[in-house]
Amino acid sequence: MSAPLLHIDALCMRFGGLLAVDNVAFTLQEGEIFAIIGPNGAGKTTVFNCISGFYRPSSGRIDLEGQSIAGLGSHTVATHGLVRTFQNVRLFKNMTALENLLVAQHRHLRTSLLAGLFKTRAYQKSEQDAIDTAMQWLDYMGLREFANRAAGNLAYGHQRRLEIARCMITRPRLLMLDEPAAGLNPQEKLDLQGLIQRLRQEHKVTVLLIEHDMSLVMGVSERILVMEHGKPIALGTPEAIRNDERVIKAYLGDE
After folding, report:
1. Which of 171, 196, 217 is the last residue of a domain?
2. What predicted TM-score, i.e. pTM, was given to this entire model?
3. What is the domain range of residue 37?
4. 51-80 per-position pLDDT tens digit
5. Which residues have CB under 8 Å from 91's CB, separation 6+?
């Protein structure tokens, strides 16, 4: 088997006297769809925040393609090809859908301050390329008709898709989705499952997600890590996790 895209080992996160994440370890292979599940307060989002650079872990390793990213800021982590969504949609609500996708491309624009001031031919071409790419992603997400509508005025399900598009337009290697099905209706959840699978197949992106909706998790994931009280309690295929006594106990309790 090739070296993992993401390698997490002995990850711990303390907040004062509280050990929120305790010795979490897993690997993520390129092209895999991997889920982290667990009851509320299990430490899932804290793990996400450590990986994506929003928290500096207290100890442990976080390697992306063999390079340590533990403790790097979120902007630096993003330049390594790791991007994320949030449980609460974080779009620029007063900007249009198109503008949200243009802002996300700033790292890939090959322009300078002088080129922008003088509107050089190279600047105009770069600007048009960014618009074309943004419109392609709006098409992909079924949002073209909302290109010039303020993101905050879009239906909630459309905001979710726009947030994923904003991540994908940065050309990530690893896409992290924090409860992407939250607030969606049953049809939108089915559509989301298909979208995640299409992104992996058509854009070669690896997906790591946190999710409470078990039908989505079981339908889209190849492996699942289960956490409880900050600790990993099970890791395996959806079938193995579904029948694991420790997982059943964590979710349903003892008789």
Report:
1. 171
2. 0.89
3. 1-81+172-255
4. 999 999 999 999 999 999 999 999 999 999
5. 100, 151, 152, 159, 162, 163, 166
